[in-house]
Amino acid sequence: MRQHLVAGNWKMNMTYQDGLALVSEITNMVADEVSGPQAPQVVICPPFPFLHSVGKLLPQGSRFYLGAQNCHQKEGGAFTGEISPKMLASVGCEYVILGHSERRQYFGEDDELLSQKLKAALAAGLTPIFCIGESLETREADETFDFLAKQLKDGLFHLSNEEFDKVVIAYEPIWAIGTGRTASSAQAQEVHAFIREQIARAYDAEAAQNTTILYGGSANAQNARELFAQPDVDGGLIGGASLKSRDFTEIIKSF
């Protein structure tokens, strides 16, 4: 059965000291909510320099997990400034975000590169949180479903059944990231259901039913409960709200 999951993507925010204080606050505030087998998994994705120290603060044996915001497609080599999946695993990472719209837009990451990153992350034992989503122009042109179907086909559906079983998908409408705009719960459900239908066509109904699909477009403490109540929305990839302990813990408690 698929998991409920909330992932906090800090992006390029926080100092080291502020980041450690934030994690301590979050873990103390939601210890009870993340202790049982039905509780959501919580993934904290800080900047690279904070990973090891943040991981040390996550309660052992809990449903808190450490995640990274990106990785390189190679295991090692002369790639100055890059971080390999093997390195991430060695400091305790279990998840990695791949294909975020900001990586696609600002760093030119395309489906071919992301396919390599996916394979490398899976080979290192990491669970990819693979992001897809349309721009405002695409949505207004009524091309959302065609666009998402192509992103899924080119970015994910080359994986084997066994590999695909280890992937989490995050739907992040680009027009709702950092803008304060949010898809309505009905819009989110419609797209999540469509994604599940595409998975069933590419793999099978069981794979579609078992895949965790997150909503990642400006979810916050006020709208999380309604979003997460939708049958095909399994949680959220949270940006700005993950930087505020009270907001993030309220989102976790929304389940």
Please give a structural write-up.
There is one protein chain. The chain is of the alpha/beta class and 255 residues long. It has one domain (5-253): Alpha-Beta Barrel (TIM Barrel). It has helices at residues 16-29, 51-57, 85-90, 101-107, 111-123, 136-140, 144-155, 161-164, 185-202, 205-210, 224-228, 245-253, and strands at 5-9, 41-45, 64-68, 95-98, 127-132, 168-171, 213-215, 235-238. The longest helix is centred in the C-terminal third of the chain and has 18 residues, at 185-202. 44% of the residues are buried.
Layout of secondary structure:
Elements: E1 5-9, H1 16-29, E2 41-45, H2 51-57, E3 64-68, H3 85-90, E4 95-98, H4 101-107, H5 111-123, E5 127-132, H6 136-140, H7 144-155, H8 161-164, E6 168-171, H9 185-202, H10 205-210, E7 213-215, H11 224-228, E8 235-238, H12 245-253
Parallel strand pairs: 1-2, 1-8, 2-3, 3-4, 4-5, 5-6, 6-7
Helix pairs in contact: 1-12, 7-9
